[in-house]
Fold each of these.
Amino acid sequence: MKRLIPLLLLITVSHIWPQQFEVHRFGIKEGLNIELTKALCQDDLGFIWVATDVGLSRSDGYSFTSYTSPSGIAFGKSLIKRRNGNLLLAADLGLFEIIPSLDTATIKTLIPGTRQLTDKKVWFPKSVFEAADGTIFLSEQGSIVRFRNGNLKRFFLPKEENSFNFLRAHHFFELDNGELIVVSHNGGLYRYDTKSDQLEKFALLINQKNITAVKYLGNGRFLTGNNRGVYSITLGVGKDGKPTVSDTKHLVKDLSVSAFEKSDELVFATTWDNGLFSFRYGNNDPAATLYTEPGRIKFNDILRGRNSELWLSSESGIILLTRRHFQEVLPEVIKHYVQDIVTIKDDLTYVSDGNTLYKVIPTEKGYRHEVIMQSPDNVILTIARFRDGILASLSDGELVHVSDNGITTRSTPDLKGKFIKYISYGNSDDLWMIEEAAKEILNFRSDGTIIRYDVSFSGIESFSTIFMNNKGELFVGGTSSGIELLKFTHASGKFTTFIPASNLPKGRLVTVNDMDFTREGIPVLATSVGVFVIKGQRAELLENSLSMVNARSLSVDDRNDNVWIGTENGLYGYDGQGISHYDVVSGLPSKTIGTRTITIDDDGVLWVGTAEGVAIMKNQYRAEPSSSPLLLVLNRKLGLSLIPGKDPLEIT
């Protein structure tokens, strides 16, 4: 049938809106310095950077901060992340390096620009690329610039390959063997010879003019996009060991492509005039899907963020397509500042939002709740499962125990301080408690007796948190000069002071707000000056970019040691390689995370308490859907294996 109607051999374009995405639009009122936006990039801290005609804007997913200095950063065309975590910006009047940090950024000029072509400056560069060895390449209207060790070299291209596009010139990618390939605006293919420091042309793509997008897919295959659609090109290796074109195919027709992005299974293509499309790049005849909700408008760039969200730059601001990673729990009920969450005992969940204690019960459609107790005149500060019930500490010093049978028992222990500030678990069905305004620690035994420990010798001014690891070692943290902990072991039966060495300035006031432990029982500390991990006798930053952040809550997933960090500006996840950021755009009720209000239940569900309620994240470590599993039928006796759907299968 396809051969009989060649004019209809165009791809089938389906018009759908995937339900897993939500649309968020950002403009001047959200802090963008101008709504005409060009290039996009994400740094290792999770911030999104936008190049505009005015300068740069940085977004935390909630609002934008603008940068307009140095003046040359205006009219930016290309943004990329370097291998060292810094960013590179190619703008009309120079190449700039951006050194991001959590609270600000430093921007410096690497190569100044010029309005007249000279040997020492760049001339209206349109794109930038960093090779594996750190060499930087830029594309100009009719040339390629190589920048290495402070030295600039320009390679001129044939005039017929020059670009007169305002935003695009030539394109770069590296093959799997590290060889740099240049795709010129009008289809010339070049390889960079590192030994001779020269560009060598090895092919010309026929009938491919005005190439405005290139994306390397691996194994020698890459995509090009222009005003005629999407092409697939495969490179092979010639007899001389140099690349050759082995296959070219017009994959998608009638799309005027402006940029590409890809996930594990999909290629996303933005267009100059018709919105956003996607197709599966493993198919020979892919069907393109039009995303209708962003609109049939001009997009200049696309970025797939670390959490699989899509950022789109346009002439009317930034559009964010995001999956809601978090699901709010009982938002019409639990909507105040969360004080504590308990999930780790008896497979039951309890939440205190200040004046009410809830039992949260899963159902087929979500969750329902039971009100365990209310305290209109006092705050329910901290809670714990204890003796077949829930124990709550109130701000007036009272302890209230509500059994699973609904029996309420109230008591006011003799305290040196004002009230029980925090309760955590021991390893013998007992509880450990710290007091407000007292250097005393209580061990509440399962038989109801209390053992008191005088720790007036401690240099900690006030206690904030107390936790025991899987080795039975108990640690206490609070506010002190430098990082100071109390440590208790059952073998010694007493508390001792532990002051790990660190790189913090001497005398720096530090508050340990929360702590948790790795699978090996190593303490990880959420402090007012960053997140630290105890390594022997030292406290070292978990990740340099987390220095000086006021970490209020922390939870370590003991399945994989991923670390979740709550702050006043959202939730951060650290997987050992990079940092992800989540806030209200991700589905959290508020970007303000409470103190000690992050926990992971026995099913691996992440619970986060915020200033306006609770949210959960399930299956948090898979951003992309996996491929459908294959059923393999094996007959060991005959030595046969079959895959139904691919091989004929007869069952008798």
Amino acid sequence: MTGRTTGFALHDLAVGYPARRGRPEHRVLTGLNAAAAPGDLTVLIGPNGAGKSTLLRTLTGLQPPLAGTVLLDGTDIRALTAAERARRLAVVLTERDLPPLLTAWEVAGLGRYQHTGFTGRLTEADEAAVAWALESAGALHLADRQATELSDGERQRVMVARALAQEPTAIVLDEPTAFLDVGSRVTVMGLLRRLARERSLTVIASTHDLELALRIADHVWLIGSDGRLRTGTPERLTIDGSLSAVFDGDDLAFDPAAGVFVPRPRATGTVRVTAGDPHRYLLERALARYSWRAVASGPADLEITVTEGGYLAEHRGERHRFPDIEALTAWARDRARQGAADREGEPCRRGGHARQGAPGGHRAPGREPDRRGEQIHETARRGR
């Protein structure tokens, strides 16, 4: 597995569907130029319907390009025979069902059949390769388990082992973290990055798990709804605004400082939090749920300070103290609800009864006022 320097390279690639039976050719993406290097985990991201799956099928030779070329280690993918492509390139699709009555060892062993000839029998060398693949994928302890009894995370490890057993130069994975819980998603993506580095593999994985991808990936292929392919490190695509350009919408925005996507409802107001991390980050995240937009400097509608005894909030010239973060966020939520009702030009009422106890003489519907953080009005009106 040495001496490889090129990985995948796309040159003026167009992908889509050729003309057939009276239907005209349909190009999904055109003019694609990109590279994925050995030793790197490259993630492919973009909105639904942008053409990610079509591009992956073209990369793996399952669908011919409409124009341009796909090179794998310097060779046009179309020039490879099926056997040559199977030895160089492993493909892991989003499969929930594995062949019945097979153990994890036997599933991983399927990756050796392009090396075994017409007999299909595994030699001692083949079995050693399967053992190495399972161990590399962290799945050797699953070898004797029935494949149908494996959890989603365990199953994905075995599928990665099957790909490794091929001893390819490149692995392409379609949604490898689909159906997995949070812990398993992190484990699988971390495994792919480690294998890319340790084995000098070219690894390309599509995913909708954007925040995890941006934390783990070495390189990103970003497809926008405009059909444009943007490439670079996660940091570069964050700084130049590419991620925001592709994913920002009326209800969602990319926060470049935190590297996460946040809801973007109509803002209640601005808030400045004076605290060290993790208090500052957690408070800003909690308040963002109720449409408070965090600012680092300048005037703010709400100012929060973490004190030894809890939290101090200053809002419209009044001070309120809270013993814990739950009491503070409950108060901020009520302020947001009241603000939304005021903007609509009607009192906050439920079932015709005025809500009492919340700001402006109202109470949140169906609940008593939150008195855990007895809100001490110090009536410190600014200017007094």
Amino acid sequence: GRGREAGEEVNRSTGADRALWRYRSRTPRGGAALHASHFSDFRRRCVGGIGSIYWSRPGRAPTRDGEGKPQPDPAAPFCRPRRLFADRGRTALRRRSTRRRRRRRTGQASIAGGQGQGDPPPPTGDSEVYCGLWANEGHCDLNSDYMLHHCAGSCEVRYSLAPAPIVAADWPVSPHRQSTNVMLSQQLVFREATILPGEDAAAGAFRYAEDFNQYKLEKFQFDILPISTVVDIAYALQAELTDLRPDYEVDEGIANCGKELCSADMLWRRAEDQMMEELVERQRQREFDEDQKNARQKIRRKKERVAVMEAEARRFEHKNSWIKFGERLIASLAASRVPGWWTKVISTFTQDGPQGGNCEETLAVIKIIPLKSKTVGIRLIELRCHELLGDPMSTLAVANEMTSGKVNGDPWQNKDFHTMVVTVGANAAMQLGLSGNASGFYQTAQEIDPEHSQYRLLKKVMELLNTTEEHIQEGDYEKALDSIDHCLSATRGLDAQSTLFLSSIQLKNCTILSNMGKDEEALANCDMAVETRLSNIAVVDREAIQEAYLVRSDALQLDMDYEEALNDIRAAMDLIPQPADDSDHRYMEETQRLYNRLLTAMHRQKLYNGGEIDFKYNKHTGYPDGRPPERDHEKILQLPKKLKRRSKEGKCAWLKENFKRLARHYHPDKYKGSKKRAERKFKEVKEAKEYISRQWDC
């Protein structure tokens, strides 16, 4: 397959063939040169091309049967399938140059665009009956030598050859023979100039120049197209437009520059003005969006302050409720209206005042009381003692028993008792990060207070969290950030300020900010969430701690800190409990899932660091230091994505400015965050600057 494809680029031995294939016979310096002597002779004799069984003698058409199909010619046994080989040495190039000089001495010129002096005049018609059929079957390419001489009309070959060599604008010319050195051209660029409805030829030429210049700058770093060439293209477009649409009318709003028709230079200036206006409009739109966002945040902060004040008022009211409850206990004790075993509980609980205290001694007394003898009052004292001791697990358990009716008497006969139990139970659930349990407590309060504000606020917070997760899954991080900010504001209005519940919001905020490129803020949120869950390891399950580790590992990988990311994944794997036997499928699945994440992070680390030596990257293939690092240096230096379209001076100015700013920011002696991260980022910025400086020649 490669031999046949390479054969399409071989320079033919006749002048007509050279004219037809002149822009395809290019060989890079130091590349492969094909031996074409036997190949050209072989193609003239083989109608079906290489590997074909349909043979013919030189200068004759192939033998056909009654249906017009070619038949093998027994008189040409030498025509058999043969492979074309390539010689990649310098000897092949020397042989090719020798053949060119020999043809030039004998009158067979090899100048691109001209006809050899020794070539016969090209044929203009078909000399065979089956030329049309052969052309449809593709023999114009398979057997080009024969078809060009005998079926030129069917192959639609036009021999309009210029008497002088055609020299391209960006191709060097050999001075000793005044011909274009086509071997130095690696690729031809084809672009079409078009006129859209309402435009004139100048607008079409301008668009063509813009497209062509952009392509050349991206691919070859060539200079822009000269204005004279753009004007010539405009003239050609106008002539074509006049022939095709003589009644065409140009929209003056597009084609007129003031009172005169636009020239190419005017269009350049007008396009620059339009680009500047577009930039100004985009900047104004960004400023307007920023003002709108600040206005929304200002309103949100105002509502947040009001909600915080209301929450403080509710906490003060809750504290006063317990003081009133203690005063009622003291009054009942003074009136001697309590049983004998009640006296020790009340006296111990109210020893320091009506606010309650001596919780450990009080709980020890309550523990010896039979469960059937524990009334609503004793349960309230037990609930308050667990809350004062900071034991949310026991507090939640007692509150669940009271709300489920597992006490003697109706706990909801008194509205104040009802409010106290719901508030304490919901606060305990929120401290454990169990927002669903807290919502359940608030739902029970709706029987007495249908417009319970805490229930509605907590429901709003949960809805905002679900909306944030949907935006994250869709990849719309701007909306997710706005939603999580609103959720944080609403959370500050809750009675219970739970750090565990806040850690869930911080993890989502970490995911959003890391995907938006704000790595420092993202890692700060992740660090706080991990520390919060580790400090409450007694009440937090292992799945929550694993979640925090894995979210932070993803953020670290986006920050290109693969070493710390691997440590977090290993820490999450260490939290998997060991099974009793090896047949635990759940353990195997969870271990395999985390192990796959570990392998993925290790692979990314190898690509990022480089230096790995394998069969492709070694000293024999030109990589003595192993695989080169695969890094996005422009991302590391925070360079704009469209900077490649700028000039060299503009790109180097951006590079210098961003390097100075980032070097000052990540300097280990001035960085306010982790010193280890500062050293790593400072090294990355320095290496990225050196790499891009070499590429851009800054």
Amino acid sequence: MLGDCRAGETVLGDGRTGETVLDDCRAGETVLGDGRTDVEGVQEAIHRLLWFTYRRAFPPIASEAGPTTDKGWGCMYRCVQMVAGNTLLRVLGRGPWMSPEDQKKNQGCESRLVRLFLDCVPPYQPCSPEGPFTSLPDLDSLTGMLSIHELATTARQRERRVDEWVGPNSAAHALRKLCSRFPRQCPRDIPRLVVHVAMDNTLVITEAILSSLDEHSKWRPLLLCIPLRLGLSEMNPIYVPALKASLKVPQSMGIIGGRPNHALYFVGHFRDHLLFLDPHLTQPCTDDETTFHCDSPGALPFAQLDPSLALCFCCLSEEELRSVGRALQSVILDSESKPLVHVVETPPPESSWLPPQEERTGEGSAVSSLDAFDFVEGAESEGTSHSDQLADDDEFVIIE
């Protein structure tokens, strides 16, 4: 994403906005996916990212009496929409990963992607993922596939209402389940994205590879989400260098997390501040493309970050996945902080899967809580990966 946006010696106050932060950037020290190094380039790249926010006056969710706005509870869903939408842009080489000239020539591509997330349409009717097809499904059949309606109803469990706030783990799992419904053949410019959620702060390479292979053993674009908990009620500062390093990994798609009662999508960092896109603007439900772009980011000190978050990476090949694994092992482990993620080739034996109890509950450990109820509906089938079997962490997430 935007990586490291360094500034001069000016000390920022917590009230500084992202736009002011960018004014302090030194040319040549900003890391961008499209190679731009100037302040204007940072702002332009941010504007070209997809931005999803609260909406109002959309069709009711789940029932005729269901909510018609996600204001106050849907911010984490909007954050995973931003991760998914911008990952799709990256897969297609669009957005910040495209030159301004090519961007003008390919505006229709972004319009087609945005339709996946629209809330202002009748309830989405899933396509059959099975083939063979006599023709490709049209775009209308996928409109709203990743809408707030689909995310909220997919994440709903037991007695939970659709309008309850969820943490990054549940939101990532809901996105994973929705993306598994992509038909085997998709319309033009709609990549068949797969989401893999690495649980227990452990990335198992072989499991992620198996998730990414289609029925013909061909690689599908992979969005890798790694939920973590970096402290108890507050962020443990020992992990900050590693978080900064994770944002510099070439495949980084940012971080979903935030602060208490406030989910945010982090796309880069500037000294001791994270740069973010904020979903907390309530807009009318519309397909107006201008409402899906933000002119400047916000800025949040690392010290105010809630410890419950998820790292996100886009892997376009097995080699890119392994490159992420190597980066998590080398760049992050060498960044003068405790490790964020354990990377292994194959799952450890069942008896050794969990770290010691004191590691899982101590303030100095990077863990995802495993003690809440299971996210996956129904009985598990043979061959289900650890990421599908492990429990949801929402009972322990501090952000609300």
